[in-house]
């Protein structure tokens, strides 16, 4: 199975901050990488697919980059509604796998 | 509008078999390129993909759980069913179903989960 490792596990940031979350795959997955946002008690919501494509309706402050084994999710200016947990997920090969999550908290 | 909703028991005993049903609307699993997945999340922990079933009947499973899982569909009822045998307290989790959406670009298929159901919490305890 392909292992996905996210860093950091958690971070504290202020409204307006630029935030970057990293995801690393245990082998090359090209650009078969998705990012999800999950708020407490809610189902996850897709933000980015194919490493850098913004899902319809997602604010443009979210962006994704990377290819191969290293990927990043960037929030250009953190908003109050962005405090949540973020997960990466590879769809290069089944079984599909998720990272362990990054919790973004208010500073 | 695509919606999915999970249903099943909230409490199961160790060693029992869990049966969960995902009832969806807004698409048909008999239509080409439609897929539905199950994902779970133990309390306070990460997401874990469990299984997927495709419009053509193909099935895919988590490596670690494949001996315990069976996914099936009833296209006439717009339902996907997941069974998990030999339940253990470590299987306590919120279980989600989600449509597996795709994009075809650069001669490749890209898949992601959208939308998700609301999830159903299953507790395994005697």
Percent range of helical residues of chain B: under 10%
> Which structural class do the helices and strands of chain B define?
mainly beta
The largest sheet of chain A, given as strand count, sense and whether it forms a barrel, is: 7 strands, mixed
Largest sheet properties of chain B: 7 strands, mixed
Specify Rg of chain A, calculated over alpha carbons: 13 Å
| Content of β-strand of chain A | over 45%
**Helix content class of chain A:** under 10%
Give the largest interface: A-B, 26 and 25 residues
Report on this model:
The complex is a heterodimer of chains A (107) and B (126). With 107 residues, chain A is mainly β. Chain A has strands at 4-7, 10-13, 19-25, 33-38, 45-49, 53-54, 62-67, 70-75, 85-90, 97-98, 102-106. Chain B has 126 residues and is mainly beta. Chain B is globular. The chains are: A mainly beta (107), B mainly beta (126). The A-B interface holds A 1, 30-32, 34, 36, 38, 43-46, 49-50, 53, 55, 87, 89, 91, 94-101 and B 37, 46-49, 52, 60-63, 96, 98, 103, 105, 108, 110-119.
TL;DR?
With 107 residues, chain A is mainly beta. In chain A, 0% of the residues lie in helices and 50% in strands.
């Amino acid at each position: 199975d392909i292992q996905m490792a996210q860093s950091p596990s958690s971070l504290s940031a202020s409204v307006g901050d630029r935030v970057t979350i990293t995801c690393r795959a245990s082998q090359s997955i090209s650009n078969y990488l998705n990012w999800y946002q999950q708020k407490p008690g809610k189902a996850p919501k897709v933000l980015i697919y194919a490493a850098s494509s913004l899902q319809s309706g997602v604010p443009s402050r979210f962006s994704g980059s990377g290819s191969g084994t290293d990927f990043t999710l960037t929030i250009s200016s953190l908003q109050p509604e962005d405090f949540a947990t973020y997960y990466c997920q590879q769809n290069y090969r089944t079984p599909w796998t998720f990272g362990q999550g990054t919790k973004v908290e208010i500073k | 509008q695509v919606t999915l909703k999970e249903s099943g028991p909230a409490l199961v005993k160790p060693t029992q078999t869990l049966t969960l049903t995902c009832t969806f609307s807004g698409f048909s699993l008999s239509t080409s390129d439609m897929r539905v997945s199950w994902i779970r999340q133990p309390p306070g922990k990460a997401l874990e993909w469990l299984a997927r079933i495709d419009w053509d009947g193909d099935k895919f499973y988590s490596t670690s759980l494949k001996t315990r899982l069976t996914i099936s569909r009833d296209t006439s009822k717009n339902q996907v069913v997941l069974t998990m045998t030999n339940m253990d307290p470590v299987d306590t989790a919120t279980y989600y179903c989600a449509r597996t959406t795709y994009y075809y670009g650069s001669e490749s298929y890209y898949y992601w989960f959208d939308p998700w159901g609301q999830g159903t919490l299953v507790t395994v305890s005697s």
